[in-house]
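Structure ticket #2291
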Amino acid sequence: MATTEDFRVANGGSVLHLTFKKGSQVFSVEGADVKIIIKKKDGTTVVKDAEWETSGSGTDGKIKYVFTTQDLDQDGQWQAQGFARWTDDFQIYSSIITFKVGANLDEIPLDNPLPP
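Resolution: structure written out below.
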């Protein structure tokens, strides 16, 4: 499951939401170390620390990642997958989701002043 958020190149603060499920049932990831594996358009894969979506415990199986301005650096189709591991080396993956990162009309680097 993913958000319907409008992802754009260089948009910091965009949030990716994932839910762990086993069949149609939500799978609790309480007590696990959670990550989100992100595959960019060019095939580059990065692993990011995720956080609990609600309640801070993971019992609802929902996690999220808040993108930084530098994360969303390519327009096109991306993929993401959640990963959870407990201290006893038990681990699970979420379903893989696909989402689009849209281009902008013009990209203005953060260190440049805005055009008049």
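Closing remark: The CA atoms of residues 30 and 57 lie 5 Å apart.
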